[in-house]
Structures are given as structure tokens and as C-alpha cells.
Amino acid sequence: MKITGTFIDEITHDIPSSNWGEREWEADFQAMKYIGIDTVIIIRNGYRNLATFNSKVLSSNFDMINAPIDLLELFLSLSDKYGINLFFGTYDSGKYWMNGDYQREVDINKAFTEEVNDKYGHHPSFQGWYISHEIDTYNPDVMNVYRQLGNHLKGLRDIPILISPYIHGKKQFAEDPTSLEQHKESWDKVFAEIRDCVDIVAFQDGNVDYAELYDYLLVNSKLAKKYQLTGWTNVETFDRDVLIKFPPINWPALCHKMDAATRSGVDKMITFEFSHFMSPFSIYPAARHLYDRYCESVGLTPLNAGVESDTIRLGEILSDRLENSIADTSALSNM
Amino acid sequence: MKITGTFIDEITHDIPSSNWGEREWEADFQAMKYIGIDTVIIIRNGYRNLATFNSKVLSSNFDMINAPIDLLELFLSLSDKYGINLFFGTYDSGKYWMNGDYQREVDINKAFTEEVNDKYGHHPSFQGWYISHEIDTYNPDVMNVYRQLGNHLKGLRDIPILISPYIHGKKQFAEDPTSLEQHKESWDKVFAEIRDCVDIVAFQDGNVDYAELYDYLLVNSKLAKKYQLTGWTNVETFDRDVLIKFPPINWPALCHKMDAATRSGVDKMITFEFSHFMSPFSIYPAARHLYDRYCESVGLTPLNAGVESDTIRLGEILSDRLENSIADTSALSNM
Amino acid sequence: MKITGTFIDEITHDIPSSNWGEREWEADFQAMKYIGIDTVIIIRNGYRNLATFNSKVLSSNFDMINAPIDLLELFLSLSDKYGINLFFGTYDSGKYWMNGDYQREVDINKAFTEEVNDKYGHHPSFQGWYISHEIDTYNPDVMNVYRQLGNHLKGLRDIPILISPYIHGKKQFAEDPTSLEQHKESWDKVFAEIRDCVDIVAFQDGNVDYAELYDYLLVNSKLAKKYQLTGWTNVETFDRDVLIKFPPINWPALCHKMDAATRSGVDKMITFEFSHFMSPFSIYPAARHLYDRYCESVGLTPLNAGVESDTIRLGEILSDRLENSIADTSALSNM
């Protein structure tokens, strides 16, 4: 199975900005299209005081930072042009729902998504909603958020609604990781409650050990089928195991996770996320190589973003120099 | 208002070295000049055992690491050539003044700056002193350092003296941030004492929330006017909000800070710092894109350091491949 | 003295993967060869569930992640081709020996190295063993590991055995650093016990202050001579002093360490490690510049991996633009 969807994390919790303009983003969409990406999910269109565009709703509630580029318009236009479905991620205040004021989080998002639907609803690529408020276990208050928001979003525009929960796993919560059985029970309860207001669930796959990933994927896949939800997996392409937080993942680990996902019967693989961690234009050079490894593995000619510009040309210079120095040595030893 | 000054942080507390040689530094000065930088500030010419050149004074006091390139000579020569004013940053022992032995810190710096003035004083670009010992509040001992050093430096060479304090703000000191009122009182006291030995004050702008920055800038600007000091702002171009410490800042946040500074009436914007965080030659690719965003915003043709070498060429390859694959599909569907 | 050996850290504790394929690795070996590298040490051929190839022994003991490329075959072939000696690093379970189950760590490695010798023993470049289990002080259990493994490895293939201990120094263990005297006593005891099963000792050089490094190197060098061991030094090319863990080291610090090593009388300098921290193809651009600085210092033409592709071309564009803008200004002022 191929990776056919990706988050776009330009309004971010913790990942550095690439500072791309329109030209760089278009090149990135081309690179996505080339490997078969048909879905992009804007992970959130606003977080605290940053947003993808200058929203009247957000500006009337918060001290927003001006958006010099309308990223939502840009991403929708590029999605229109390249035949990609775009999922719109909701606003995350970073405070109300963290502090128990769930209703305020819901109310702002109702107004925000109305504004968005009015302003950007004409884009044919606007094909999904993404509720950005992540959970890892049953939480009755967030169930209520999902129900209220889900119904509202469906009323605005009847398109699929996606969530991407995380697993309370040992790689992120070493002190009190959940067991597979606890995970199953908890999410059985969640799915029973959200089945009417959410369509697709894409668990993040980086919170558990590589060895136990398949078992979790299988449970998730079966739970999704039980409640007639669509089950995607969010194949994280960043590395949680090294000191820098976070660089692109290593290729063997990515292969392992894609293989586990394919065997588990998930409906689709998406990733967090292409533009930083597996793009040939990434600010992290290791991502450029990861793109090539991925291309090779699915039978596509690699782009060689790293290789063409550096390795080949410099490799040729080095080859020449090495040959000359060997020739020199031979000349000397022949004397 | 444009950014017209930058620190040079090659002798650093915590930022990785670019390992540039003369050619790379000259290119960087050209890139600075192109966007209108007229002032560079060497943030410190010595820190613990590293210095910009092999100083006799420092070597007789500390186990110094040899300086393979005379960076001070290089920076002064490039400043001469490109018509840039250079501010010389003092030595920071990293220990004496931290441990209360202020006099020793002063005495070493007196001897060090004499050596520097003798050796490098002929450079016409040598146009300012920078006292590298940063504070965030009134501190009578450091006032004494400023007074002693300030008088000494003025005696050596009567050129402007700059300091760049930080604000004890909530982004860096979440547990006990200062209030705007406390900040104002404290710095009123500082300015009253240093007005005779310091000429320019450039507060760092990254320690407070984006929403409160303008208020702090306004207070700083008014205080400077009250004491007839020149008020610059140090617009940090690195990002304090992400997990990696530190990458280039995101463009919307930089726009926000430049706008707040312009409205507040500061005399000049400088940045910490160009070469890592907004240079087209930066070791951080996101900085190369930031340079282009900045160029566009001030009406200059962007350099497209990232785009020309990667995006355009690879984008063309991708466009061709995508067209061919669409052509192939059409051919198939026409059969 | 030149750096003539390097670790290869593709199976890593904490360093991000470059995601290189065969072409990139070959270019990297060319770049090593060009500066005179004659020895590569695969730091470990397996760590927890990742390995350089799909080992039957490891797969029967652990849930291994599939190795999409046989890196051991690749590194041996490249070493054969470029006339480089390869040291094979043992498997590190990351648990047994940490938890006191030393015998299990030994037994797995006996079987693993037998498998390796059978499968890869025909490569002429297979010229050394590296025991990857690092220590910083006398430890009777690890002495036993070294003795058992050393004898086993010698029996399999009578080639030199290398270890690379760390110093319990103040840069890594600020709270209870060892003194030089304690270090000497402890390692005198270690060397007395391992002299028959280890041939080469290459202490890591980054755990102590720059000022005290020479003294440690001298002690290590004398101890090696006393016990007729070969004494190498592992000149770390990453920077432990900045916030990002870890970028390439700054050039003056590397010069300092190479100079101290040369004066101390070590037999050879190796580094941890070339491909991330001083390669012209590194994912860290500062490493590309470090390679050039190193080339210049040993009288080789630098490769200018960073300069050719960016600085020169962009520098020319900038020069043109700057000249034109000066010409424009002159034209104006002549009117």
C-alpha cells in the first residue's frame, strides 16, 4: 500500500517553519502528486495567534498575528489544480479546551468554519473536515466537542470528517503506557459514541514500539470495521528516537511501519508529514533522500534532489581527483 | 522600517558554527549589503577560551584555543569594503562576572580592548563598541561594569557604545515573568545611571509574547527618549517556540515584530542574527527562504537561493513527468 | 597528523539517519578516500531491533526490523573498491548488558559474529573487529565480556580488535567527573586485564574540557605504550557545547583537538564521525564547510560542496546586483 495522504503542518505546535512562498509550495504539491498523494489535511487552520489566513472571527476573539500569505487559498488552489482532496483542520485555541472550557472552543470553531465555508466553499478540492483536537483515551467532554462540531460541520458541508488520535503508548508515555487491552476497551467506547459524527479515524503510529505496532493497527482496524468507520493510519515520517526533535525517520523504520499497516488491513495510509520529512524540497536534507528511497520502493524514478545537485557532480570531481592521484602515484612508481 | 543591522555570532554561547571561510563570509556580507544592512555587531570577540583572533591579552590569562582564521580582521576588512559600520563586542569570561568578580571582568576587558584598538584601530569601519554583558534588570554591580568599561572605551576611541538587554519576559522566564510596570521602573533606574557611558540600547524582542511586544517596545522607546539614549530594537530572527533550539523564525511572526517595532518609534532595527537565521547561505535552509520572503516584502528581487538550486529545476523535472504520465493516461483512455 | 579513520554510525543510538542509498554512500567513500581515510569502523552492526543486514541470528532472538539495503555488504564492497580497512562493530542489545545479563550479550554476539564471518568473510577489506560495548571505568563484568568476546573473535578471524572508551569527564558528567589521577588508575587496571584480548584503544576525546584534553591524551598514550596496546584517539567531530544535540563541531575546536592529539604521541586519529559531521555530502551543511576547512589545512583543494553550489553562483548574482545599484546611484548623482 502506498502513502496517499499527508498533513500540512504550517500552523504548527512544535515544528520549524520552512518559510516557503507560492513557488516552493507548488513544487511541493508536484512532488506529492508524483508519488500518488491524493489527500492533504491542513492539520489546523489556526493555533493560538497564528492562522492560515486573516480570519475575521479569530481576529475578533484573539490578538492574531497578520498572515502575510493566504495559505488556505494557496493550498486549496493547488489542490484544485493538481486534483487533490483537501481536509480543513479546525482552530485550536491552545487554552480553552485544555482548561475545561470546551464550549468556548466549540463556539469559536462553529463561527470560524462558517466563515471558512462562506469564503472558500467554492473550491472543488474542499472535500473534508479535520477536527484537530487530539485525544488518546475516552473523554466525555471531548466526545461532546466531537458531537457538536461534527453535526455543525456536516450541516455546513456534508463531506467526510477525520480525526487522528494518538495512542497512550510507551514511546511517548514511558511512565504509564496503556496496554493493548486497555487501548481496545477505551477506543471501543469512543467509537461507539462518535460513529455518527466522525467518518474516518487515522491513529498516529509513532507512540508504540515497532514490535507492537502491528497488534495495535489490527485492533484499530477491527474496531473501525465494527463501527463502520473508515480506518486510516497516520504513518509518522519523523523520528522520535534520536536527540534532535524531530528529524526525518530512517528508511528501514518507515518500511517496517508501512508493511505493518498494509498487513493490518487499514483503508489508507496518510503521513505526518510530507513537506518537512519526506519532501525533495524539505529544509531537512535527509528528507530529500527519504523521498528517493520511497520512489525507488514504489517503482518510480527517484528525483535525486540531494544526489543530482551534490553527489553526482561532486562525486565526478572526486573521481577525477582520485584517478589523477592514482595516475600520479603510478607515474612515480614507474620511474 | 527595514532591518539595517545584525549581530555576528561566530563566538557563540549556544549556536552551532557554520564553519565558513573567507569566501563564504564575503558572500554573506554581500547578501547583507543587498538588503541594506549598514551595521554589524560582533556579539563578543572572546568567550571563555574561544576568540575571533589570537589575543596576547587573552592568551596570558586563559588557556585559549588557537584561532585558525583572524575573524576580526576579516570582518573589519569586509566592513571596510562594503561600507558597513562594525561594532566590536567585548570579551565574556563566562565566569568572573557570573561569580561576582566584576572587577576582574572589567580589567581583562580594559587590556583586551587596548590591544584591539592598537592592532585593528586603523580600520575605518571600526565605528562602535558593544558591551556584551547582558542584563535584564537593575544590577548595581553591572552598572559599575558599564560605567568603568564605558569610560575606558570612550577614552580609547570615541565611538558609540551599544548594549542589548533582554526582558525578563514570560517566554523565557515562565515562572516569574516581570510585569510591564516592573520592567519600566527597573529600566528607568538603569537608564538614569548609564546615560553617560552608553549611547544605544537595543532590547531583545523575543522574551515576551507577540501580543504584548508593542507595549514593551513603546515603553523602551519612551525611556530611551527620556534619557536621550538612542533606542534600537533587536528583532530576533530565530524561533523560540519550537522544539529545536533554535531554527529560523517563521515569516508571519517576523513581520509582526517588525511592524510592532516600526509603530513604536524605535530608531533602528537590528537582528540576532543574519548569518544563521536569514542568510541565503545559512546552514539552515529555512533561512534561505526567509531571506527571499524579506526581499519580496521590501521590494527587492529575491535571491532564490533555495528555489533556483532546487525547486525550479526539480519542479521542471516533476512537471515533465507529471505531464507525461497524464499523457500516458489519456493515451490509454483513448484506446 | 591527519584523521585517517572514521566510524560509520548508520545503526545509531541517537544520530538522525541520512537515508542514503548506494550512490550517496559511494560518493561519501570517495570523499573519505580523498582526505586519506584508510579505516572505517561500523560502530555497531545491530542495536536493539535495527541491523545492517537481515541476520538469521538476530531475527531468531529479537523482533528485528527488516533491512531494505544490506549495508554491511555495501560498506565492505566500497571498502574493497577504495582500499579501506573495515572494522566490524558487534551487536548491542541495549538491554542485557545494561541489566547485568552479560553472558546473554556475549552469547548472542558469538553466534552473530560467526554468521557474519561465514557470510562476509571473503571480503579482503574485513580487517578488524570493534567491540561496541563502551565503558568509562574499570568494570569486572565488562572485562569478562571483553575477554570472552576477544578470544572468540580472534579465533574466528585473527585481525586487530578495537575498543573506544569514554572518559568520565566534566563535559558529560558535570556532577561527579573523574580526576586525571583517578582516570589513570582505573585505566591502568583495565589495560592490565584486557591487554591479551584487545589490540587498539581509541578514547573518545569530547568528554573533557579543551584545556585538559592534552593531559588526558598523554596519560592514555603512555598507558597504551606500557601495556603494548596501540593507542588511537577518537577525535569527535560533533559539537557538545551548543543547544542542538549534535551539529558539526566548530573548526577552531577541531584544530585544537587534532593538535593536542598530535603532540601527545597517539598512533592514529579516527573520528566519530565523517558522514554526518565532516562530509561534503552531509545532511548538515556546516559539515560540508568543515570538510573544506580540513582540506585546506592539509594542503588539499577543497571540494566547495557548499560554495560551488550556493555561494559562488549566488555571490556573482549579488555582485552584479550590487554593482548595478551602485552604477544607478552614480548615474543619479552625476545628473
From TrEMBL, chains A, B, C:
Protein name in the entry: DUF4434 domain-containing protein
Native source species: Sedimentisphaera cyanobacteriorum
UniProt xrefs under SUPFAM superfamilies: (Trans)glycosidases (SSF51445)
Xref: Pfam families: DUF4434
Sequence ranges assigned to domain DUF4434 in this UniProt record: 3-282
Gene3D superfamilies in UniProt: Glycosidases
The organism's place on the tree of life at top rank: Bacteria
InterPro entries associated with the record: DUF4434, GH
UniProt lineage: Bacteria, Pseudomonadati, Planctomycetota, Phycisphaerae, Sedimentisphaerales
